[in-house]
Structure formats: C-alpha cells, structure tokens
Design a protein that fits this description.
Layout: H1 9-25, E1 39-41, E2 44-48, E3 63-69, E4 75-79, E5 85-87, E6 91-92, E7 98-103, E8 108-116, E9 122-130
C-alpha cells in the first residue's frame, strides 16, 4: 500500500481502500458474505403411504434431504416433532449442505422443523405425513 505523507487525503484514501477490501470479501453485511438469501430447499414435503395400505394409515420410513443455502453459517436445526420425525443432525455447517429428515409414523399436518442461521434468522420446513384415503366403493 502506498503511503502519502503529510497529505489530508491520505486518511480518505486508506478508508476508501478498506471499504473496497470489505466489499470484495462480502464483509459488513447481514449475510456475512453470502450473495444468496437464507432459504431451505425444499420448503415442504408430504409423505403418503403406498397404494394398497389400509385406509387412514400414516406410515414411517420416508426420508427427505433438506438443503440450506445463503444466510450465515452455521445453522441450527430444531426438531419440534421428535415423536414423529428424526433428523440425522441438528447443525449444518456450511451453505449447500443438508440434513436428512425421516418420518417415524403417525399422521402430521403442517408440522414444522425450524432452521436458524448464526444471526438468528429462521426458515421453516413443513412436514406432512398424510393418511391413506379410504378405498372407493366398487361400482355395480
């Protein structure tokens, strides 16, 4: 860096250079360098029992990977449905990584899993485990 001695503009030049460096690395913003808004994909998943399952049954075993993007890592994953859903981890370390959700059985409508970034912002993942529909009556 070139220093300009005894010049009133030297402080301004240094400040401008610092701002340029911070802007280049993404520093100073709420997303801590992220160019992508904090989000999760997919935001909703619905599981349903396979064909031939008795009416009104919600089965377990279905899994879904949920990817976390943007925001400020690391991310905390809060399982608000521990009797119905298991998670393979409760923290995601970096943008683009995922956690896996597995339904344990039991019916769920609009159940939520909350994902928070290190700045406290949150995204909500919605889980549905739909019961099988009643079989339609055979026509005669």
């Amino acid at each position: 860096m070139k220093t300009i001695k005894n010049h009133a503009g030297s402080l301004t030049l240094a400040a401008a250079m610092l701002v340029g460096v911070l802007a280049a690395c993404g520093g100073g913003g709420d997303d801590a360098g992220s160019l992508t808004a904090f989000n999760i994909q997919p935001a909703t998943v619905t599981f349903s029992a396979p064909a031939g399952t008795a009416a009104g049954v919600c089965v377990g075993g279905g899994s879904q990977d949920v990817f976390v993007y943007g925001g400020a890592a690391p991310y905390k994953v809060d399982n608000t449905l521990p009797d119905y859903v298991s998670l393979n981890k409760t923290e995601v370390g970096s943008p683009g990584e995922s956690f896996t959700l597995t339904v344990l059985g039991g019916c769920i409508t609009n159940g939520t899993i909350v994902v928070r970034d290190k700045l406290g912002r949150q995204q909500v993942f919605t889980v549905n485990n739909a019961p099988t529909a009643a079989a339609s009556a055979a026509s005669s």
